[in-house]
Specification:
This protein has 119 residues and is α/β, with parallel strands linked by helices. The protein is built from five helices and five strands; from the N terminus they run E-H-E-H-E-H-E-H-E-H. It has a five-stranded parallel sheet. The protein is globular and about 35 Å long.
Length: 119
């Protein structure tokens, strides 16, 4: 499984180690909206802070199964497009003095719960 972080420059002090136990992790410094489909090709899980995920990007990513917003809002994601594909969108519920330290744990925890299970 490929996990792509679209704007890793915001979290340069972060250890993405906990996510690496779930699959291949690709950390991009910054991704413009027009570049999202190419940059995130093959990703099952996308993590974004400011890089927008519009309907065009979401529809261009057939493997996409989870979107994590590394902020308290959802305004960078086209919620209707994600909902139409059955893709859960989760965000960081609140900030702490050093929120970035807990983001990988939070995302990996939510991804495990969002992953389809095979009987």
């Amino acid at each position: 499984m490929r996990i792509t972080i679209l704007d890793g420059e915001k979290f340069s002090d972060l250890d993405w180690g906990p996510l690496r136990s779930l699959g291949e992790v690709v950390v991009l410094e910054r991704t413009r909206a027009a570049d999202v489909p190419r940059a995130a090709a093959g990703a099952a899980c996308l993590l974004t802070n400011k890089s927008p995920l519009d309907a065009r990007a979401i529809s261009a990513l057939p493997e996409l199964r989870y979107i994590g917003v590394l902020a308290t809002g959802y305004n960078v994601v086209d919620g209707a497009a994600a909902r139409a594909r059955g893709i859960p969108v989760c965000n960081v519920p609140e900030y702490a003095p050093r929120p970035s330290r807990s983001i990988p744990s939070l995302c990996s925890s939510r991804w495990r719960r969002a992953r389809p299970r095979t009987p």
